[in-house]
Design brief:
By secondary structure, the chain is of the alpha+beta class. Helices cover 26% and strands 9% of the residues. The chain has a two-stranded antiparallel ribbon. The protein has a two-stranded antiparallel sheet with strand order 3-4.
Length: 270
C-alpha cells in the first residue's frame, strides 16, 4: 500500500491491479497555497518599448558619468522619452517660472513636463534650470510617471526623515525598484545625483536592463573614453543611455541585436 493506491500483485508477479482510494465526501481536496507575486509597475506617458538613446556626449567626446546633471538636462531627457501621444497632448511652450525664458533651449521640455505635473518649481517662482539636481528631487520626478499614490511603501533609509517632503517619493521609488541606497541603509537625499546614477534610474523606470556581456561589439556602438572600463558598475547603464538599439530578452537581461540610428533630438525641441 502506497499513499492512496492499493497495489494487488497477481500470482505470476508480472501484472498489478490499481484501485483508486476515494476520499470521504467531507474531506476537501488539497490545494497548494498560491504565493502572490509582486505587481508589475509600468510608467505612464513614457516610451518603454523602443530603446532609443537619450544622452548625448559632450563636444570633447566624453560622456562624464561621474559629473552632476542639471534640472534642465533632466527635463530634456524625460521630454525626449515621452510617447508621441503624450508629447502632443501635453505640449507647451509657456510656463510660470521667472527664470525659464521662452527662447531657452530647455523651455519646451520644462514647460511640457510642468504642464504634465511631473516637474515643479520653488516657492520663489523659479525653476533653477542650471542648478544640479539632488537624489531626492530625481527620485520624485521618476516616481511621478507611475501611479505612485496607489503604492504602499515604508521608508527604510536612516537619513530620510518621515517629515521630509520627499519621504514618500523615495520610499515608493525603492519599493518599485527604481533606486537603491548605500551601505547602512543610507540614501543621501540631498547629495547631487551623478549622470551615471541618473541613467541607471531612468533605465529602470523604462524597464531596461542592460548587461555588459550582452551589448554589441565596441566597434558597432557609440563608445566613450571615460566609460571604457567594462567592470565599472555603470558601464552598461551609460551605454544603454547613449546607444539606440534593437534587442531581445534573455530572461530579464537585454541582448542587443543591432545598432539603430540615434534620434535627432534638436529637431524635436525647436
Amino acid at each position: 500500500r502506497t499513499d492512496n493506491k492499493v497495489i494487488m500483485p497477481e500470482e505470476n508477479g508480472n501484472r498489478t491491479a490499481v484501485f483508486e482510494k476515494e476520499l470521504p465526501p467531507d474531506v476537501p481536496p488539497s490545494i497548494p497555497p498560491v504565493t502572490p507575486s509582486e505587481p508589475e509597475y509600468t510608467p505612464n506617458w513614457l516610451n518603454s518599448r523602443d530603446h532609443v538613446s537619450y544622452i548625448i556626449g559632450y563636444s570633447d567626446g566624453t560622456v562624464k558619468p561621474n559629473a552632476g546633471i542639471t534640472r534642465a538636462e533632466v527635463a530634456t531627457i524625460f521630454f525626449r522619452l515621452l510617447t508621441d501621444g503624450a508629447r502632443e497632448r501635453f505640449w507647451s511652450e509657456a510656463n510660470t517660472y521667472s527664470d525659464v525664458a521662452a527662447g531657452s533651449w530647455y523651455n519646451i521640455a520644462v514647460s511640457t513636463l510642468s504642464n504634465m505635473g511631473i516637474l515643479g518649481g520653488y516657492e520663489d517662482g523659479t525653476f533653477r534650470p542650471n542648478a544640479s539636481i539632488t537624489r531626492a528631487e530625481f527620485a520624485k520626478i521618476a516616481v511621478s510617471f507611475f501611479d505612485w499614490a496607489d503604492v504602499y511603501a515604508v521608508n527604510s533609509f536612516v537619513d530620510v526623515r518621515d517629515s521630509a517632503w520627499y519621504a514618500n517619493y523615495v520610499a515608493v521609488a525603492a519599493k518599485i525598484g527604481l533606486i537603491e541606497g548605500y551601505g547602512g541603509n543610507v540614501f543621501r537625499p540631498d547629495a547631487t545625483i551623478t549622470r551615471a546614477e541618473a541613467c541607471t534610474i531612468i533605465n529602470r523606470t523604462l524597464g531596461r536592463n542592460p548587461d555588459a556581456d550582452h551589448l554589441l561589439p565596441v566597434g558597432r556602438m557609440n563608445t566613450w573614453p571615460d566609460n571604457a572600463d567594462t567592470g565599472v558598475w555603470y558601464y552598461a547603464q551609460i551605454q544603454e543611455a547613449t546607444n539606440s538599439h534593437d534587442y531581445r530578452w534573455i530572461g530579464d537581461i537585454e541582448q542587443w541585436t543591432a545598432k539603430l540610428a540615434d534620434p535627432d533630438w534638436d529637431k524635436l525641441q525647436y
